[in-house]
Write a structure and sequence with these properties.
single chain; about 625 residues; alpha+beta; eight-stranded mixed sheet; five-stranded mixed sheet; 15 helices; about 50% helix; about 15% strand
């Protein structure tokens, strides 16, 4: 056993290593090629002056990223609230935070307000452009030559009065080749500075781009929410477990993350009581860990994985500590660098999940590989989104996360649809097999009963041949009529009309009356006929009443066959005043064969949903009562 497990663990570890290298390589390549692609659009300033003279010609789809050193004015609104001649604090790199950078000690506190100033010249483009900062969590205003051109949120010198939003109002700007002054005023509660670079882009293209990607994002959100609702309904109504109950919960978590991240929050902000986007980033930060935990629980439940309680407790405690503990740490933690570093804790869950999925794949689980592939979309989407929203992705990729999470939901939908189809196919095959088995069982039961009746009928005729040839002749006639008129019913496995079964009984009783005329009396009280019974179900009961009841008494007795009905059931009663017996002997091994009555009871219960009750007392007689529901008894099959 151990020898078998070693190759599996080795394969799982190799698969995990491949996944880690693939993930790390993907992030590196995105960052590297992102920087490479921006070299032609990235303007490098000299003394805070962006010279576009030698830059690539600007066109409708171009973006100029204003990255580099800007003049920085700490705790000054140099344009909207000038206090004399502004005093520059230093030249500060953009994008970066003015406080809390782990690479050096900063004299500035996290949060607060400040201004940035730079100049642009040599710009040549005939159509209107705009200057904005995409998806930053701080409130800001952009001035061009002293005129307000872009505004986002509410700026204030008081941190508690600052309110931010990922959207912005952008005016059309006509830039000439002359030198223009750009001033950016920014304020926040905890974030510090321009950790995302300002962009110059075509105004109409930017507007269309924003609306298009908003529509795409909320189309994805709608699809994921719709899938979650459908899964909730299916899980509630279905008696078969097609998927884990955590799947719709996971889908709702994914939809929630898409709604509160980047420009998605520009639409959903009123739904969350207009909570500042800066505050919402904390919930977005927490949602990273929530999604990873719910994914872990879902995959554990779906694949019946046995997780270590110690590891689960450690992982939950670590996530809780990071998510809740952020509020109690120094303000420098709110720096975007720390947000990215802290979110790397969630990769513990990623590595563990992928490792377990690889182990299950090595064991031969047909769905583990597909689930592993699907989980790559969660890892990639949330990782890239965390880097992008904190200014560590050098290009616009706000739609990457919604696309990845939607593809994850699509993959899981396909996987579970395939599982449901296979379960349905198995259920249909099982029903067909069950039906065939039932028909085979019925045929066996009938084959057991038919020889039993034939044997007794022939014995009756045999006994009459020597003793009373005329009665024997009449018995042969009755028997031939019985066989000629009812041979088809002997092999019929479906319920038949009671009148047909009653004819069986009368032919049999006529034969038995010829044999026991001095000891046997048959009475009929037939009030109901229009219902069905299983074939050869009443005749064996009458046969038992005659053979094991009445004829066992020296003086003989009477067998009474009656039918009646009430509001719910048709009632068939076969009563005799014979020797009686102990009804519990039917359920016990008393040395006698009770196959006949057991078969009859089984067929009534399974074919008609009827009940067969037996009342008997030694020396008094036996009464068999059959109650057939009217909705089953009148159903011709």
């Amino acid at each position: 056993m151990k020898a078998r497990q070693k190759p599996r663990r080795k394969n799982a570890n190799l698969a995990l290593l491949f996944f880690v290298l693939l993930a790390a390589g993907s992030v590196f390549l995105m960052h590297f090629f992102g920087n490479l692609s921006l070299k032609s659009d990235n303007l490098t300033p000299v003394n805070a002056v962006f010279d576009c003279t030698d830059a690539r010609p600007f066109h409708k789809h171009s973006r100029y990223y204003l990255e580099g050193e800007w003049e920085f004015y700490y705790r000054q609104f140099i344009e909207s609230d000038p206090q004399g001649e502004p005093k520059m604090s230093e030249m500060l790199n953009v994008p970066s935070s003015w406080a809390g950078n782990p690479l050096y000690d900063s004299p500035y506190e996290s949060g607060g307000y400040a201004s940035y100033r730079a100049y642009i010249k040599g710009f040549s483009y005939k159509d209107p452009v705009t200057i904005y900062i995409p998806n930053i969590a701080s409130a800001y205003r952009i001035y061009l030559d002293g005129q307000l051109v872009t505004e986002s949120g509410t700026l204030s010198k008081s941190a508690t009065d600052t309110w931010s939003t990922p959207s912005s109002s952008k005016q059309k700007i006509l830039l000439t080749s002359e030198e223009h002054e750009i001033v950016i005023e920014i304020s926040s509660e905890s974030y510090s500075g321009l950790y995302l670079a300002p962009i110059i882009a075509d105004h109409s293209y930017t507007q269309n781009y924003t609306y298009s990607f908003l529509g795409i994002r909320y189309a994805f959100i709608g699809i994921v929410i719709y899938a979650a609702i459908i899964l909730f309904i299916l899980g509630f109504l279905s008696k078969v477990r097609y998927f884990s109950g955590w799947l719709p919960v996971l889908f709702l978590c994914l939809a929630f993350r898409m709604m509160i991240s980047t420009e998605g929050y520009a639409i959903s902000q009123p739904w969350f009581f207009n909570l500042s986007y800066e505050r919402m980033t904390l919930l977005m930060f927490a949602s990273t860990f929530i999604i990873k935990l719910v994914s872990l629980i879902y995959l554990q439940d779906e694949l019946r994985l046995k997780l270590s309680k110690e590891f689960t407790a450690f992982l939950s405690a670590a996530f809780l500590l990071v998510v809740v503990g952020v509020s109690f740490l120094p303000t420098s933690v709110y720096n975007n660098y720390y947000f990215v570093v802290l979110q790397l804790v969630s990769t513990l869950a990623d590595l563990y999940v992928i490792n377990r999925l690889c182990q299950e794949l090595a064991k031969g689980d047909p769905y583990a590989g597909r689930l592993c592939f699907a989980y790559l979309f969660i890892f990639a989407g949330i990782t890239v989104d965390a880097l992008y929203t904190n200014g560590m992705m050098p290009f616009l990729c706000s739609s990457f996360m919604p696309v990845c999470l939607s593809l994850f939901a699509l993959q899981l939908t396909i996987i579970h649809a395939d599982k449901a189809a296979k379960l349905f196919q198995r259920a249909r095959e099982a029903r067909e097999l069950e039906h065939e088995v039932e028909k085979a069982n019925m045929a066996v039961m009938i084959s057991q009963i038919q020889p039993h009746f034939l044997y007794n009928a022939l014995n009756t005729i045999k006994s009459l041949i020597r003793r009373d040839p005329k009665k024997a002749e009449q018995a042969v006639i009755d028997f031939s009529y019985y066989l000629r008129g009812n041979m088809d019913s002997l092999t019929h496995t479906e319920p038949i009309p009671f009148e047909t079964e009653l004819a069986h009984v009368k032919y049999y009783c006529d034969i038995e009356l010829l044999r026991f005329s001095d000891k046997l009396k048959i009475e009929y009280d037939i009030q109901e006929k229009k219902f069905c019974v299983p074939t050869l179900s009443i005749q064996p009961i009458v046969e038992n009443a005659i053979k094991h009841g009445v004829t066992k008494k020296p003086e003989g007795g009477t067998v009474r066959i009656s039918t009646a009905s009430d509001d719910k059931d048709y009632i068939v009663t076969v009563k005799d005043d014979g020797v009686g017996f102990d009804p519990s002997a039917i359920e016990e091994d008393d040395g006698r064969s009770h196959v006949g009555i057991q078969n009859i009871r089984y067929r009534f219960e399974n074919m008609m949903h009827a009940t067969v009750s037996i009342e008997s007392e030694k020396g008094v007689g036996t009464c068999v009562i059959i109650r057939i529901p009217k909705n089953s008894a009148t159903k011709e099959q």
